[in-house]
Amino acid sequence: MITAGVCLTLQQAVCLRRETLAYDGLGELKKLIVAAADRFVPGDLEDFRRACDMVRLAQLGAILAASDRRTWSPAGTALIGWNGCGCTPANQAYWDDYQQHGRETGRGMFFVPTLPSIPVCEAAITLHLQGPVCYIRTPPQTRKLQEHLDDLFSDDATIRQIMLAEIHVDHACLLLCDRQPGPLPDHNDLTAVFWQAKKDLTP
Amino acid sequence: MTAALVHIHHAEAISAAGDDLAAARATFAAGAQPFVVPTHFAARGVHHGLCAALQPSPRESRAIALLKRLLSRLPAFGDDDAIYLATTVGAIDCLEQNASGPTPDCIGILLDAVQRHFPRCSVTLVAAACASGQSATAAAMRALRGGRCRRALVIGIDICSEFVTSGFVSLGAVSRTLTVTRPYDAQRDGLLLGEGAGALLLGLDAGGAGGTIGALLAAGESCDAAHITAPNLAGEQLAALITQTLGRAGLRPEQLGGIIGHGTGTIHNDQSELAALDLVFAGQGACPPLLSIKGNTGHTLAATGVLQIVYGLDFLRQGQLPPQAGLQQPAAGAERWVAAQARPLRCPRLLSLNVGFGGLNSALILEGRA
């Protein structure tokens, strides 16, 4: 079921199939990707500069996960954000900024990311994914997430694959799942799923 | 092949339009705009304008208090049932009141409150910006059709807060009049916020003690994948979604009785939505009537999708859409869609639309029961 994926931090991106990338901050990772355009799927990173790290992790992670797939097409791809830290850091960042400005004016650049669906929407824009996109929070059991995947696949025949994203303040894991049968291994987070899949791929 | 009908067994709504359906019906019929000056928050420099507030500030979180009011009205719920909670920022007032200490997980606080009320049920939070209400409903429909639960409860809830209001002001989305919002009007200039909560009890069986008050025929979701806050003004993605959703319900456009639009009253939202509807109904003679409930309720964010369905069921029972509140002169191209008078539904089926930041689109078709 899992066809590609990436676990990334602010310094390193480990792909399921491709080589590990090391960098000093997400700005440098973006430069690496842009400089080696022939090795990565194209992505719209227009919003990158003004984005917070959670959004940047989602944008760059989406490009890396898509590039990790042997053949990539954005058509029929849904995107689900799952658990992670939601919008809590973005809420505090907006509120702090608003208070520091005397509670006289908020700033849109801080307000928009306060929605928990924003990182996955930015990732969808980056890869031009037009399938269903949302953020869900369930108990931390991948079998709960599996139910949503199965329901989405069985309900909509136009969906060919689903990108899963678990975004935290300083790390993220994105996995691509297709319609092939086979459940996600039972874990509490996507990172553990990723490492099990990576281990299974290792000869 | 069309998917199984999802029956609606119970529906509840609390909004500024009314504390119950009877009161809301009177508000809609009169085209009333019950916006008031918010008294539960104040900010020195931000002109928040009016909003559709429901109650003075309680001692506990305003969001939790509203949730409790809603939950107290719901029928008993079984252990093998599932709950889908739609919210954009949850109990955001907990952050506003938090002078020190760790940042509260505002959506988690609301999720935990629902889980405590239904300790043995599976609760899933669904967040898709202002399309959350219908997105949660669509998730519940899929779970029922997938056999994951016997019944599914969908809850949509959001409050008016200084946090959200100042944020929408910062984006220039709030009406400069600060007193009125005019969805689909030539002079529209922005939204006014409202708070609200709605609930739908869904199941695949039409029977049971309470019978059924309506049905959900089909739902669809998509993403423009173009801009984080602005909709596609040409409406192409939304039009494609509506057409796809109609197809999944086995319907043609002329088999819709009316449309409840997202209709925030912002320039771009309404323009995009009207463009999408024009694409879907191109070549059709008469268009079904269109209404935005936000003229009466304000923009209730994640609650709006659920409220549109609950109020839509009541419109279906009455056989007509009420007047569009706030409408003086329809926007160019909107003349064929909206009116300041009540209009009959040509059949007992409604299309309900939500759109949200991130380019999220949601379409849902509901059918009335006699």
Which radius of gyration of chain B do the C-alpha atoms yield? 19 Å
Strand order of the largest sheet of chain A: 3-2-1-7-6-4-5
CATH class value of chain A = Alpha Beta
CATH superfamily of chain A: Thiolase/Chalcone synthase
The CATH topology of chain A is given as: Peroxisomal Thiolase, Chain A, domain 1
Give structural notes.
- The complex is a heterodimer of chains A (203) and B (370).
- With 203 residues, chain A is an alpha/beta fold.
- Chain A has seven helices and seven strands, in the order βββααβαααβαββα.
- Chain A has one domain: 3-Layer(aba) Sandwich (Peroxisomal Thiolase, Chain A, domain 1).
- A seven-stranded mixed beta sheet of chain A has the order 3-2-1-7-6-4-5, with helices on both faces.
- In chain A, helix 2 crosses helix 5.
- The longest helix of chain A has 16 residues.
- The mean pLDDT of chain A is 95.
- Chain B is α/β, with parallel strands linked by helices and 370 residues long.
- Chain B has a single domain, classed as 3-Layer(aba) Sandwich (Peroxisomal Thiolase, Chain A, domain 1), CATH 3.40.47.
- In chain B, strand 7, helix 8 and strand 8 form a beta-alpha-beta unit.
- The relative contact order of chain B is 0.20.
- Strand 5 of chain A pairs antiparallel with strand 3 of chain B, so a sheet runs across the interface.
